[in-house]
Structures are given as structure tokens and as C-alpha cells.
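Ticket #4471: complex job returned nothing on first submit. Input attached below:
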Amino acid sequence: MTRILRFGMVGGGPGAFIGAVHQRAAEYDGRARLVAGAFSSDAARSQAHGRALGLDAARVYDDYRTMAEREAARTDDRIDLVVIVTPNHLHHEIATAFLECDIHVVCDKPLTTTLSDAESLCRLAAQRDRLLAVSYVYTGYPMVRQARALVADGAVGTLRRISVQYTQGWLAQAVERTGQKGAVWRTDPALAGAGALGDIGVHAFHLMGYVSGLAPQRLFADVTTHVDGRRVDDDASVLLQYDDGVRGLLVCTQVAGGVENDVRLRVSGDAGTLEWSHAHPEELVLHQASGGQRVYTRGGPDPVPAALRAMRLPPGHPEGFHDAFASMYADTIAVIEKHGAAAGDRNASRVAVATIARQFDLPDAADGAAGVHFIETALRSSREQCWVDARWQAPMASARS
Amino acid sequence: MTRILRFGMVGGGPGAFIGAVHQRAAEYDGRARLVAGAFSSDAARSQAHGRALGLDAARVYDDYRTMAEREAARTDDRIDLVVIVTPNHLHHEIATAFLECDIHVVCDKPLTTTLSDAESLCRLAAQRDRLLAVSYVYTGYPMVRQARALVADGAVGTLRRISVQYTQGWLAQAVERTGQKGAVWRTDPALAGAGALGDIGVHAFHLMGYVSGLAPQRLFADVTTHVDGRRVDDDASVLLQYDDGVRGLLVCTQVAGGVENDVRLRVSGDAGTLEWSHAHPEELVLHQASGGQRVYTRGGPDPVPAALRAMRLPPGHPEGFHDAFASMYADTIAVIEKHGAAAGDRNASRVAVATIARQFDLPDAADGAAGVHFIETALRSSREQCWVDARWQAPMASARS
Amino acid sequence: MTRILRFGMVGGGPGAFIGAVHQRAAEYDGRARLVAGAFSSDAARSQAHGRALGLDAARVYDDYRTMAEREAARTDDRIDLVVIVTPNHLHHEIATAFLECDIHVVCDKPLTTTLSDAESLCRLAAQRDRLLAVSYVYTGYPMVRQARALVADGAVGTLRRISVQYTQGWLAQAVERTGQKGAVWRTDPALAGAGALGDIGVHAFHLMGYVSGLAPQRLFADVTTHVDGRRVDDDASVLLQYDDGVRGLLVCTQVAGGVENDVRLRVSGDAGTLEWSHAHPEELVLHQASGGQRVYTRGGPDPVPAALRAMRLPPGHPEGFHDAFASMYADTIAVIEKHGAAAGDRNASRVAVATIARQFDLPDAADGAAGVHFIETALRSSREQCWVDARWQAPMASARS
Amino acid sequence: MTRILRFGMVGGGPGAFIGAVHQRAAEYDGRARLVAGAFSSDAARSQAHGRALGLDAARVYDDYRTMAEREAARTDDRIDLVVIVTPNHLHHEIATAFLECDIHVVCDKPLTTTLSDAESLCRLAAQRDRLLAVSYVYTGYPMVRQARALVADGAVGTLRRISVQYTQGWLAQAVERTGQKGAVWRTDPALAGAGALGDIGVHAFHLMGYVSGLAPQRLFADVTTHVDGRRVDDDASVLLQYDDGVRGLLVCTQVAGGVENDVRLRVSGDAGTLEWSHAHPEELVLHQASGGQRVYTRGGPDPVPAALRAMRLPPGHPEGFHDAFASMYADTIAVIEKHGAAAGDRNASRVAVATIARQFDLPDAADGAAGVHFIETALRSSREQCWVDARWQAPMASARS
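Support reply: We reran it on our side without changes. The output follows.
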């Protein structure tokens, strides 16, 4: 499958910045193109947006169900992939609709608003052998990928502590009451599920596991809402415990006035400590027990394949959020291509798409569900004021393969 | 002209990173699309590259002359714009060919290898009333635009010193002898003209003028070649003098081993000093005589329209080189659209494209020629070991308007 | 009292870096001079060290009890102040001995190894109206003082979160087994009491209260020991809750391999967030909800008196740990002088030294005891795995005044 | 000579910040003590200052000549060393007076206001075999010393470029007219000699040579005065050429509004580039051609003896300007002690103090004179607008040894 991949989008109408980001990222390398969409629950707005994007009017739909059906009915040029960028409460039903039509899915985080929904998607994706990727974009940064490899390779020695602190300030005041669209739905429990935990906490949670290779055993959380009248959490601190005494710390807050979008990762072992900050994503610092620091950049030293795969520019030409997002899509496309190739190749043993996704460390349905499990567990710990079991097992599925 | 703009590309075949950057940047916002190209002087390679990009084979050409002719001959869907990303020695003849067909041009820097070529392009662009933009990409960064506005607004007070230091290390050793493609042509005087001065010095020179609003009166340069056997300059230090005693310093070097692509701007006045570094392009620091520093980000305070126009993501989601490049293209497209609109509007007074470009501070033929003049002047000063006149006057042209 | 103050030292013999730091800091501004000491529990070592320092042999003592008695017996030139820099388990008895002789005390942190000891010192210091200062040195940094003033002044708005994270790596491995002197006693529960909590946690705890002006209501801690065989804690994460829903986070760890001595403070409110890092102590960053950042330096803007008092060099000439330590001593000396002046002034109303210390925000016995209370509370919470009451009330004392 | 060294001071009266810095630095490690002084040209002020410092009134002098004579006449406790911190025009005569009494000298920079004066001091110091150290304090920073060793050891490969840029803003406006004491004499040619070149340019010049080990062959300067009515230079840019094509750049300016005291060093070779900035003096960055960066701190890796000698605190406890100054004095004291030891040791071959100073890389009379030569050469180049010979040869002297 060397042809350009076709994708559709559900959500992402005018004013939704993340829709444009997904489209740009997917099309970044010229290997995929947006050809269809149901951009808004308002049919007229959906049509207008599709026109503005230059799409064939026949493939701009009034709702996602029609889109799934009609696209599935196309013989030669149906979409390979759908991107879901609606408010969270719709993710489950939309992903279900497309997976049932055997269309691959990229879904914005958090995957769903309940764990049972997330687990049902895990099973469905496995049954249909379709990719269900979740846009944990921070794994698209080359230096985050380098960090994962360095930890696995022993650069920090025996692990001691893992921490991700994700700090924002845009919800420090009750902006949802001013009608700011992104704030309105993100603070409505019916649409968003959780607040800070769902919006940014799951990024932090996935990042901790991605870089360390560890999943927590227990957690203790203090989840709170600072802004009067707000109906979802806007701040959480979570302590985690892993096997072998490793400790973890996750902070997600949206009420740190003046902070833009600050994500800081720190992984310590007995031989060194890695630090990465989203503010300067091109630099990965390794504090070494032997003294001083080593700063990794895209220029090296020793970039690992997963990092190299996520670079486009010569070092020193700053790459950023769009590039990381695009790298996540590049891997998504590669996984789909490889899966298709295997499917079309008579002699190849058939490999499940989830297996291929794992080769690319691509966040998939299980990672999405693990994030939803984290949200639920943290809320329960905070409510019950005690340590709770944080282990989660991906559901077994009778996959077609 | 709300339709999607069509552009072609000359050069930028496989392996040429800057071609992909131009294409991605031009298509970033979905307002332009690559439809034609002569990607290589090798016809087979050009065809292969066009196919890989999914272009109509009929619009992939063996050479730029054919491309200019055939595209000009198309009635409904000719390209609006051509992007020139060949080695420098071809810029003049290619730009000439397309301008003569009334096709707008974006040309990589330096504009040409001789000043007379550059001046002839200035005249031609004016005569045909076509845009000839030069890709001085650093002007696409929001914080560089903010810096320009702050200086104009008196934030640093009366100007004292301006400095841009552009430092790279990739040519610290004789990599051209290893066959590295980018190094081979950039160190061949027949293809590149000058070395460091042409490759990065013109960026620095334009940036100094862009941010300060000043053009130098005199300059003194020490231009040298560090690497044995290299036939172009790889290092230059230039002192500049402006009206009212303002002093300038420009350094461009490609032999600072280990340095990736370091561009640092500093503008000092009696009330403050602005600093910007390409390594962290989202931060603009104003040292204030009243104490401490103010750090400007895309989040504010008081972003100026030119900066706002160059932002896509919420602050704290790092934008980088691709975004800056895309913002330069966004302005290019806006200029062309506005020019076309004026042309199509019976009641509008006809405004020259150069006038519109100036409203967008878009680097154009005059800026390109000023860069070439700078190269020649610096080389002469270094050769003659004396201060030389640095003033340059854009040639008068009998524009059609 | 404009004469130069005389001070003695208990502990701080050869090899103990902190003894030299205290002496240098106390003598920094030429307003105090070391004249006596009992530098080691080994009398010969004590004498040798006193000789090396050029002290009068008659005032170099074999043990602290003799020193207290003999110094108290001197009529004209007894020491005004004793500095205690022994292992923690001796602080209580030594401080008691000198306070009972009406000699002011500066004691290294933590004040004692049990809360009851600390509270008894609080009472004794009040009864004798003598200063008992505790060397929470981070309050000596001008930018920390500026931070306290900015928070009090509303620069961050309504408080939301407070965090101090104190990270070291020097105990990441079992260096105590190599005989490293500082590690040996710090990991011996009989000598040190607690581990990381006592060595650095109390610094963090005091700093949180100092900058925010708040004391916690409840806390939840996860205190652990990573290194096999170590008998004290080497790592703790503590969640705190304050009135009005303010949340706090304190991390202290000594097992983050390769990290030198990293202290990071963050205070967030609905209007802004302050950040200070010990690595670059001359910079205080205020992220502003109105956009961008303001960086405070010793150069301004608007330095508060407490910060100005702690500066010696023109801005841009880096001050560091020695300067902060010296500023803590400068305040200590000023408090003692002011107290003495009041004592000698017939018309002045007699003011208790504790009241004067409070005017200087100088960490005193109550701050020391609060730190010890924090250690005990954190250990209890971690053991019981539940939120515990974190409030502590300084004991009432029948002061002489 | 294990006794504590005695020193006197000329200049440094109340209000002169640098006097206090010298005293604190000299006394930092308890190995030297101020015992005499002529602190002001106003006898009453000198006496008052001496009293405030607690000095014996008999050793507080009305003028430096009396001080030199009377101190020289003391048999047992004469000063070993005099520190000269007057305005520049007096350095020569004061240093001469003390050297002629065989008293070692530390002189503030620039050494003198004319080259002939400086050369005469070189000869005199050699004849009397006395140390004449010049307070180029930046060589006291451990990371600057590490940089020198790394360059010598080939860490940056074959040298290409050396640059030191020293930027201040405190003279951006005509503060001398407001009566600010430091500004008044520093902008009076009769007292200061040169302006920015003498005040900070010589620091930069010495630093370039210290770190690179190279002395320039030729230089070209643009020296100017930005502030109307000012009678000395306040801004200079200097291009330098060394053997083997190495290029240098020195900038010193005091008119960059808002900049505090910014010194940036960069040394590039074909294998790497070292960067050090005074703002963060504990970090030395080596950009490596092999990719990424290595950051050296006091914690390592591989600290060289000269750096280790200049450390007092564990890494991560910031050292700064006072510490660097004190390390310069520690070396000064070590040189004097070693010289005295040799003098008192019958079996030792007598070694000239200049030879010992060189073992410590301690800036001495020759380094001071080289700085004055640099000032004169830069002014001449700027005046004549041409490259000038920058070589300087220390005068031969009939040393006693």
C-alpha cells in the first residue's frame, strides 16, 4: 500500500483548534489526505467547513453514522482511517461505529468517559483487527523516545523515582462562564467525564509508563476543584508505587495562573536522572552520577531508531508540537500500511494490527483504556482517602487473527 | 481569490531537505497545493519524485524552461506561484523565466550570485508586477515579529547596538570531500557564489534590518576560510555603522564544531535590550533598565498583529521552524490573494504587489538584492581591509502600475 | 552594640564543610568573629582545629559543657552567640547548655531529633529571652525574600498550589558503607533522627511556609527507603492541604542519581505563578495570567527591603550559597544587636528577642520545632497510610519579658 | 609560612563596593587579614573607615606614601601584601611605592593608564622579585579554569574562533552627571584612562588569552562613545587574528540598556565549541561535533586541579562572584607563601615569584601590561581605521633571581 492514505474526520469544525492540528499532522508528510468528514453536529456547519477545506461535498456528512455507512459502502476509495476529535462523551459510540465498518480509528484522549466503554472498544478493535490509536502526542517527540530508550538501556541505572507534572493556568479562573468554547465542554461532566485528569492527566500517566516501561501497583490521589462552581476536577496530585519500591508522582493542574502548558518529566535511578521539559522539547538532560550532565538533542549522541523516525529537520532547526503530532501520525500510517501489506501478501503470516502497533510503541486502545482506568482509580482514591490498587489488565479478546 | 492556490517547484528533488520544507510550509494551512514541478536536472529523477508526490505526470517536467512555458500555456489551472529551491547559481535564470510568464516566485536565499542579477530581478518583478519573495524564514517567527514591533515602539529606547550572530558547526571539517550533497554544492563557488555569507550571512543581515528598521552606512568585514582546500568563505565577522552612531555586529560561521544552528539576536538601546535565540524561539527577552526582564511569549503580553498572524497553537505548545516557514508562506499567499483580488475588482485602485508585500513586511526582491549587495560588500571590505560604503538603493523600475 | 560580635562554635571540626560555611558566613561582613570553640568530641582534634584557625588556645575547649561554663564565666569578652553544627542528636543538649548560660544560639537544622526536645528548647529560649535561630538558609536568598513579598502583595492572586521539591542524588547508592563521613552519621538513626526528611525535608517545609505565609492543616506522606540496608528514609513525597482548599506538594529525595542539590519552588494563584530554582538563584520568574513572564533579579524591579538587605554585589555579579548564608547571619547579628540595644536603653520598652526575630522573618525556635513536627507527622502519615493533622502550635512560655 | 598573611589596602573607602569585595575575598579562607590601610585621599575619611573596620588606629594612614614607609619600617608584623583599589590613574605610583619597599601587590584592573607605566611596573616587580597580581577575577571561576584545561587538552579540536562579549547597561545613559561616584571617575579620562575598554575590555581580553592559550597577531577595532558629552569610550567591537588563521571577537559595551553584567565566552574548534556565561557561572557547556552537549559543573566530570582548588561547596550549592574573587586571592596567598617558603629554605633553589605565579596561572604584571597594550592598540586601530599589530612582548628585566 504505497498509495496515499485516505482519512475522514468526525468533529473538528470551525474554531476547534485540535481538528486543524490533527489534519495538518496527518497530512504532514504527504502520505495521507483528508477526504471526508462530519465536522459538526450542526449539519450546515459541517457542510460549510467541508467546503472551506475543499472536500467533495458528497463526502461531507451531516452526522457520523451516515458517514460510517456511506464510506463503508464505497468500493474503491473508502477512507482507511477516521479521526475522532469530538468532546469525550461521543468517542465510544463513534469509534464503535467505524470499527464495526472495519475502518481504523485515531481517537483523541481520553479514549472514553467510562472504563467499561474503553474496554469494550479494546475488545471490538481486537475482534475487527483494526487500529484504535489514541493521540498521546508527547510520545511523538524524538527526545521523549530517546528517553524511553535510555531508561531501557540502563542510562539511569536502577529506577528510583518517576515523575510527570503537567501544569496549565488557562482554567485558573472560571472562564467557562465567559462562554469560551473549549472551556465550556471540558468543564461539563456530561461531555468531558473528568476534568484535569481526563484532559491532561492521562497524557502524564501515559508518558510515565512510556518512558519508564513500568505500570503502577497502587496509587493515592488528592483530586480537587479550586474554582467555585466548577463541576469537574481542575487539579490533582497522585502518588504512585511500583514494583521494587519505585515511587511515582503525577501532578496535573489547570489552575496555575500564568502557566501556559508545562509538562516536565523526571526519571531517576541510582546512576542518573533524566529530565525533559515540554517548554524546550529538543533537549533531553541526563544528570550523571559520574558528574555533570549530558544533553541529548536530535543531533545526538546515538539517536535511537524511534527518535530518528520522528525527525524531519536538521538539528538546531526547532521542531515542536506539530512535528510531534505528525510523527505520531507517521507511525499510525506506517502501522496501517504494514498491516495492509501483510493482508495483501499471500505468503506473509497474518499479523494483528495491535502487534504491529506495539512494534511502533504506538498508543492504542489498551493505552487509552489504561488512561481511563487511571482516571477512575485516582478519583476513587481521592474520594476514599486511601491507597488503591492501580493495576489494570487489558481485556482478552477473541481477535480474528 | 478564495480558491486554493496552485504552486510549482523547481528543484527540491529527493534528498533535498529544503524542498520538503517549502512544500510542507506552503501547504500548511490548506490554502495552497503543489501541482507541478521540475524537481531535478535529471529528468528521470524529476519524474520519479513527482510520482512519489502523487502529482499529475503531465505536470512533472524535465526542466524548468519547459515547465514555465507549459504552465503559462494552461488556461484555467496554471500555477499561481513557483518555488525555486535549486542551488544558488540557477536562481536568476529560473526566476526570470517564470516572472516573464507572469508567475509569482518564492526564491530561496541568497536571491542570486551577483548583484547585477539581483537588481535585474528587482526590475523585472516590478515591471511584471509579480511577487518575488525571498525565504528569509526567521521573519516568520512570532517573537521576531514582536521584537520588530517593540523596537519600533520604543521598548529599548534610543538604539545603540544591533547584533545577529549565526553559528553552525556542520562545515567545521571538510565534509564536502565525503560527498555530502548539501556541502558539495554549498562549497562550490560556481554553484553557491559565496559560502557562509550567502548561506547564513544573508539571513543574519536581513534579520538585523528587519528588527531594527535600520540599514547600515558602512561596514568592515573579516571574511575567511578555515578549512584547508575549501573554495568559499566559511566564517565572517562584520562590524557595521549606522546613522546616529548606532553600531552593529554580524557574525556568520559554519566552523564552530558541535554547534547545530544557533541564531542569536540582540538589540540594545538606552532603555533596554532585546534578546532572541533560535534555540528557544518562543521566548523574547527584554532586559529593562528599570530592572529585571520581561519575557514575551506567544501568550503575550500585547502580541502585535504580525505576531498573532503567525501563530497556530495555544501558547505553551511549542511552535518551531516549520511553523515559521509556514507563516512566511501564509503571508506570501495573502499577498498574492490580495493582489489578485485587487486585480479582479473593477472599483479597486490597482495596487502593486510590492506595495502589498511591504504591508506584510514580506521579504521581497529588494530584500533579496540587499542581501546580495551585503555579500559583495563584505567580501570587498575584507579583501581591501577597510571600511566600505554599505548603502544600497533598490533600482528604480518602470512598474506596470 | 556597635562592637564586633564574638561567637563560638560547637562541632565543625576538620572535614566538616558546614562548619567552615557557618564561620565564613558569620564573619562575612566583618561584624562578628569566631573566638572560641569545641570543635570535636576528640579533644586533641578540637585543639588542633582551634590552632589552625588562629584562636586563643584558652578558648578552645575539649567539650561543649566546659565551653559553656567557662565562656559564661568570662566577664568582658564572653561569646555573644554559639553556633551548633554537630550531628542532630546533640543539638538539644548543647543548645540547652548555652541558653541556660544566656548565650544566643544558631543551630543547624533539624533543630532536634524529637518534638518534645524541640518544644522544650522553644520554652527555654523564651524564658531566657535568648535567640535560638535555625539555619534555614534558603530564606537568605534575595529572590526568595522577594517571592515572599510578592505573594503577600497579591502578585499571584488567590493561592491555589504551593510546591517545593528538593532533590539530591548523593545518597543514590550506599555511600555510607564507603565510610563517607557526612553520609555515615546522616544515615544513622541514633545520630540523625530522620533521613531525607530531616536533612532536606525541613528546608523544603520551611520554605513553603516562608513564601506562602501558610501552615498546612493536613498532610499525607509516602516516605520510603530505596537503598537496601539503609536505616533512615531517603525519599519522601508529601501532599498537603491548607485552608481555603489550597494544595501543597513537598518532595525530598536523596536518591535521584546525578542530581546535585536541586531545590525548586512553585507558588500558583489564580493570577500568576512564581518559580524559583536554586540552580539559578538570582532569577525569580513570575508567569502572569496576562501573558508572558516577568523575571525579577537583584536589579529589580521593585526590590523589597528584606531582599535589598540581603544583597552585597551589583546585579549581574552572581551571588550564591555563601551570600545567602551570610545574609541569614547578618539578620541574626542585627537581631542580637537590636535586642542588646533595647536591653541597654533605659527608656526603651523591653522587647523580647523573639519579637525582634519575627520582624526580620528570621527562622527561630518555633520554626525549628515546626520542622521537627513536620518530620514526625510525615513519618506517622506514611506509616498509617492516611491523612493526618498537620497543625502545630508553638508552646506557650513564661518568657521573662 | 603557615601564619596568617597580613595585608593592607589603598583605596576602598566607604561606598566603594570593590574594596569590600577585595577584603572579603582575601579573608575568605582565614588565611589573610586586613591590618592596615589608607582608604581615602581624605585623611578623616580614611581614619573613620579604618575604625569601622576595627583596625589599629596606628595602622590607618592618611596617605599611601606614609603607609608604605611606616609599614616597611615595622620589623615583625609589616604587611606582606597591599591591595590597590583606587581609581586607575594612581595605580602606577602606588604600586611603585610598595614594590620599592618589597611588599607584594594586588592591583585592580586596568594595571595602569599608560603602557609605559605598566612596563615599568613589570620591570620593577621583576627586579624586586615581588608579586604584582592583577585582579582579572574571571579566572577565579572553576568552570573558566576547566575551560582552559579542556581547550589545552583538545576537547574542541583545532581552534577556529574565540569570542568574549562583555555587556553592561549601567552607563546607557549619562549617569555620571547625576553624581554616581563609580560613574564619575570611570568616565573621567584623567582618572580612568580609557572607558569601557579599561573597565571591562581588559577582563574580556585576558579571558580570551587565558582560555585559549593564544595571543593575537593583529586587531581591528571600532571604538565609540554613544552617550553625548561622555569623554571616554563606552562601547567597542574588536576583531582579532591569531596564528593559523584563528579568529577572535571581543565586544565590550556599557550602553546595552537593562543588561546587568553579562560576560559570554565561546571557543570553537573543529571538534567542539565551549560556552560559558557569567550569568550561570557553574555551568560550562561543550557542544560536541559527535552530537549533543556535555555540561561540566563543579561536580564533574573530571575536574582539573586548578578548578578543584577553586571550589569550597559541594556541587549544587551555587558559588558566585565572591567565591571566584576569593579563589584568585587563595592563589595569590599560595604564591606568596610558596615564594616565602622557598626564601626561607636554605636547600631550595630560589625561584622567582613570577615563576611561581605562572604555575598558578595567576594574572600578574605581564598580564596587566598586556591588557594596557590591548587598550592602546584598540584605540589606535579605531582611530586609524586599519588593522594594527597586536603583539606585545613583556619587557626583559634584570630580575634578582
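Chain B touches chain A at residues 4, 17, 20-21, 23-24, 27-30, 53-54, 168, 170, 259-262, 278-282, 297, 299, 312-323 (CB under 8 Å). Closing as resolved unless it happens again.
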